[in-house]
Design brief:
Length: 462
C-alpha cells in the first residue's frame, strides 16, 4: 500500500535493538520520519545504530541496565527531541508503567493504552475480560488458585490432565503439565516458584490441558476512532519449549468459514475494548473449536508473515494509528494472497540448542522472488551473548503452500552465516518431514520429533 501521508511525527525513538529496531527505522525512513536508535555499549556497532538518523548509548550490555532502563530511554528521547517512542517487541513493549511514563513526559507511545497492557498482561484478568466479551476460553479455574487443595478440586471437576500457568507468565515459564493427582502438589509448588522468580508474581491458575491443539493467532488492529479489524491468522504450532520456531499463514487446517468465524470474534473484541494499535489474540484450536490463550499487546516477531500475504506495512500502520489517524484498512479492502512461511534463525547449535554467540565471518542473505530476510547482522558483526539468540528471520511467499515450502528450502540453502552455529539446518530438516508437508502437526509435534531424531542419532552412533 503506497504511503502518501505527510510525516505524522518528526522523530521517533526506538526503544529496542536488533532486527526489530532496524525494521522500525526502515518504516520511518519511508514515511519521512527521523529515527533515533538507543543502544547498549555492546551494540555500539549495530546495524540499527549505523542506519538511524541519530543514536544514544543508554547503558552497559546487560538488558536491565540499558534496554530496560526507563529513565535512560526517556532522557534519550528528551535530548534528541523525539515526538514518539516505539517499543518494538520484548524488553519494555508490554510494560504498562513504561507506556504511562512516556505519555506523562509528553511523548506518544506507539502502542495500546496502558490499561489494556495491564489487563492483558495478567492472564487471569485477560481470560475473564475476553470471556465477558464473547471469546471462547479453555475450561479451568475462574481465577487465581491459592492452595494445593483448591487446585486438586479443580482437577477433579474438569478431569486430568491440566496445565498450571503463571498469571503474569510467558515463554513457557511457570508452566507445568499435571497428569495425575500424585504429581499435583510438586508441580503446583514448582510453577509458583518459577512464576515468582521470572515475573515477580507467584500467582497461578489452572486450565484443562489439550492433547493435540494447534496454536492459531489472529492479527488485530484498532484505532482511536473506534474501528477494529483483523488481518487473518498465523499458525505458530511448530515450537520448542513454548518458543515458536516456524510460523505460517494461512493455517493449513482452517477453512474459510472457521477463519471468518474467529476473525470476526477477535475484531469485535478489539472494538468493544476500544483497543488502539497492533495486537495479537492467540488461541488453541482442537476438534474445530477455538480456545482463547492470551493476547499480546504489541507487534509480534512473526508480523512479516501477515505483511507478505496482505501487502500491508504493519509498522507504518502502527505509527499512523498512534498519531490519531483512522485505519485505512477494513474487511472489504483486506485480501489474503498466497501463502507465507517464516523461520526464526537463532545463533544456536541446531541439535543441542546451546547458544552460539561470536563473530560472523561471512554473511550472504538469500534473494529472489518472494524472499525476505529480516536481520541486523553483517559480516564482521559480533553476536553479543547478553540477549535473545535470534539473529534473523527468513520469510518466503508464494502462490500456494507447496510452492512456498520449495521456495523456503531454496532460500535456506542460499543463506550463509559463517562463524557461528545457527538453526538453519534444523529448519531445512523440518521442511523434509511428512507431517510438515501435509500440515499435520500440533504444538507438541516438534518436541516429539526432536526426541525421535536424538534417539535415531544415538542408535546410529552405537
Amino acid at each position: 500500500m503506497a504511503n502518501t501521508d505527510k510525516p505524522l511525527f518528526n522523530k521517533i525513538l526506538i526503544a529496542n535493538r536488533g532486527e526489530i529496531a532496524l525494521r522500525i527505522i526502515r518504516a520511518c525512513r519511508e514515511m519521512g520520519i527521523q529515527s533515533v536508535a538507543v543502544h547498549s555499549t555492546a551494540d555500539a556497532n549495530s546495524m540499527a545504530v549505523r542506519l538511524a538518523d541519530e543514536s544514544v548509548c543508554i547503558g552497559p550490555p546487560q538488558g536491565k541496565d540499558s534496554y530496560l532502563n526507563i529513565p535512560a530511554i526517556l532522557t534519550a528521547a528528551a535530548v534528541t527531541g523525539a515526538d514518539a517512542i516505539h517499543p518494538g517487541y520484548g524488553f519494555l513493549s508490554e510494560n504498562a508503567e513504561f507506556a504511562r511514563m512516556i505519555e506523562e513526559h509528553g511523548f506518544t507511545f506507539i502502542g495500546p493504552k496502558p490499561e489494556h497492557i495491564d489487563k492483558m498482561g495478567d492472564k487471569v484478568v485477560a481470560k475473564q475480560t475476553v470471556m465477558d466479551l464473547g471469546l471462547p476460553v479453555v475450561p479451568g479455574s475462574d481465577g487465581a488458585v491459592e492452595t494445593i487443595e483448591e487446585g486438586l478440586q479443580i482437577c477433579r471437576d474438569f478431569g486430568l490432565p491440566v496445565l498450571i500457568k503463571a498469571a503474569s507468565g510467558g515463554g513457557g515459564k511457570g508452566m507445568q503439565v499435571v497428569r495425575s493427582e500424585e504429581e499435583f502438589a510438586e508441580a503446583f509448588t514448582t510453577a509458583r516458584r518459577e512464576a515468582a522468580a521470572n515475573f515477580g508474581d507467584d500467582t497461578v491458575y489452572i486450565e484443562k490441558f489439550l492433547e493435540k491443539p494447534r496454536h492459531i493467532e489472529i492479527q488485530v488492529f484498532g484505532d482511536k476512532h473506534g474501528n477494529g479489524i483483523h488481518l487473518g491468522e498465523r499458525d505458530c504450532s511448530i515450537q520448542r519449549r513454548h518458543q515458536k520456531l516456524v510460523e505460517e499463514a494461512p493455517s493449513p487446517v482452517l477453512s474459510e468459514e472457521k477463519r471468518n468465524e474467529i476473525g470476526t470474534l477477535a475484531a469485535d473484541v478489539i472494538r468493544k475494548m476500544g483497543y488502539v494499535g497492533a495486537g495479537t489474540i492467540e488461541f488453541l484450536y482442537e476438534d474445530d473449536k477455538f480456545y482463547f490463550m492470551e493476547m499480546n499487546t504489541r507487534i509480534q516477531v512473526e508480523h512479516p508473515v501477515t505483511e507478505m500475504i496482505t501487502g500491508i506495512d504493519l509498522i507504518a500502520e502502527q505509527i499512523r494509528v498512534a498519531a490519531g489517524k483512522k485505519l485505512r484498512l477494513n474487511k472489504e479492502n483486506i485480501r489474503l494472497r498466497g501463502h507465507a512461511i517464516e523461520v526464526r534463525i537463532n545463533a544456536e547449535d541446531p541439535d543441542t540448542f546451546i547458544p552460539s554467540p561470536g563473530m560472523i565471518k561471512q554473511f550472504h542473505a538469500p534473494g529472489g522472488l518472494g524472499v525476505r530476510f529480516d536481520s541486523a547482522i553483517y559480516a564482521g558483526y559480533p553476536i553479543p551473548p547478553y540477549y535473545d539468540s535470534m539473529v534473523g528471520k527468513l520469510i518466503v511467499h508464494a502462490r500456494n503452500r507447496e510452492e512456498c515450502i520449495r521456495r523456503l528450502r531454496r532460500a535456506i540453502v542460499e543463506t550463509v552465516i559463517d562463524g557461528v552455529k545457527t538453526t538453519l539446518p534444523l529448519h531445512y530438516w523440518i521442511t523434509e518431514q511428512e507431517d510438515f508437508l501435509t500440515g499435520g502437526y500440533d504444538i507438541h509435534w516438534m518436541e516429539k520429533k526432536l526426541e525421535e531424531k536424538a534417539l535415531a542419532k544415538e542408535d546410529k552412533a552405537a
